[in-house]
Structure formats: C-alpha cells, structure tokens
Amino acid sequence: MKPDSQSVAEVLSALTKEFPNPKTELIYDNPFELIIAVILSAQCTDARVNQTTPALFKKYPTPKALSEAKAAEVEKLIHACGFFRAKTKAIISTASDLHHKFGGKVPGTLEELVTLAGVGRKTASVVLNQAFDVPAIAVDTHVKRVSHRLGWAKHPHPDKIEFELKGLVPEHQWAAINGLLILHGRKTCKARTPLCDRCSLTEWCAFAKARGETAQRSRPKASSRKKNKGTVSARGAQPSR
Ligand code: SF4
User: Fold this and answer.
1) In angstroms, what is the span from residue 39 Cα to ligand 1's centroid?
2) Domain 31-132: assigned CATH number
3) Residue 201 DSSP class
4) 224-240 pLDDT tens trace
C-alpha cells in the first residue's frame, strides 16, 4: 500500500531529529571538486575519498589540468578509492567535457550534467543539491534499500525509484531526503542486518510490519508447540541487498 503524506512527513521528522544536518561528508571547495569527489565515492567511503582528493586537486586543480593528465599518474593518486582504472577514465572524461563543452564550469542543470561523460543521474543530483541548492533526489544503494524497506518504492531501478520518491516527498525536502536515508541506512537500516529493534521508524516501516505479521502468522498453536520448535520465518520481508 502506498504510504500517505502524513506518515512520510513523520518519518522525515523522526530522521531530521536524529540527523539534523544531513549533508554530504565529502570535502570540496567548488563544484568541480564536488563532481570529481562524487565519482570517486562510488563503492568507496567518503572518508577515503577525502583522504585522496587533496593530492589530486593539488596536482590537477581545474578541469583543463585534469583533462590533460596522464592516466597512469591519476591512477596512482586515486588508487585507494578502488576501481581506480575505471574511475580515472571517468574523471578525466568528465574534466575533458567540462573544459571543452562548458568552458571549465560545472553546469547547473540535470539535463546538462548528465551529458558529461562519467556522470549519471545520481552524481548529477548530488551536485545539484550540494553545489547549486537545486532540489533533486540521488538514489544510491542506501536510498534504494531504505526506500524499499519503508515501502516508499517498489522499482529495482534507481531512476524509477527517484520518481517514486519525488511523488511522495515534497520538493523542498528532496535535498534533505538523500542525506537522511543514507545516514539512516549506514547507521541502522544496514544492508545485511537492519537494526529494527533500535530503529525509530518501525511504526511506519513496511519491512518491520511484514516481519511482525509473519511472526504472528507463523506462531504455532498451543496444541502443536511441542512439535514445531523451528524459528519464525521472515520470508517475504528479506533485507534487500
Ligand atoms: S524498522 Fe528496520 S527495516 Fe524499517 S527502516 Fe528501521 S531498520 Fe530499516
């Protein structure tokens, strides 16, 4: 069942109390540094990216400089971020597009941002939110998982989830929802084992409700308890991966 606007507002209110400043933890001085940092953050922690980018931006402080970089040198600098060959290719391509197509400036619209090599809707949305204060929803693995469990989204594809969330959450909260769901996903609604017993969202959460209902349905009758000593199954409410 689609959640009502009241329950969505209550979830956002509970999360805002827990995380009053849900901004990205990536450190950057300008939109160019942000877009490169976001690309590097795929499958990598923000802390690791923050350790890596100072040397990268010292050596290549502009899109032009990075577009002219030798791949092998960039690979050495970003090696710790993982997938260093693919990420090197992506950030050099992005820098090249910024230099050649946009005069070295990061554009401020989704339509323009997604034309950059190496930039998809998720990266573009983060940049819009953080660098330009433009409302956007970036769907990463945490946003996807928590949205599914809350019952806010059904689609597996991030682009579709983005539109499901945009249909539920008021536009002025699009920027905040990213940070809130990411922080909640990291701290409590973990991928393998969600910590429902200490979560403030259980009363609005489809996953928690399904698990409770499953437990009720599976509870053996008094007469058959001795025969059935197995554990309660939460099938149908498995954590997303
Ligand atoms: S109740 Fe459990 S599944 Fe639902 S949001 Fe909280 S941790 Fe995630």
Assistant:
1) 28
2) 1.10.340.30
3) T
4) 333 333 222 222 333 33
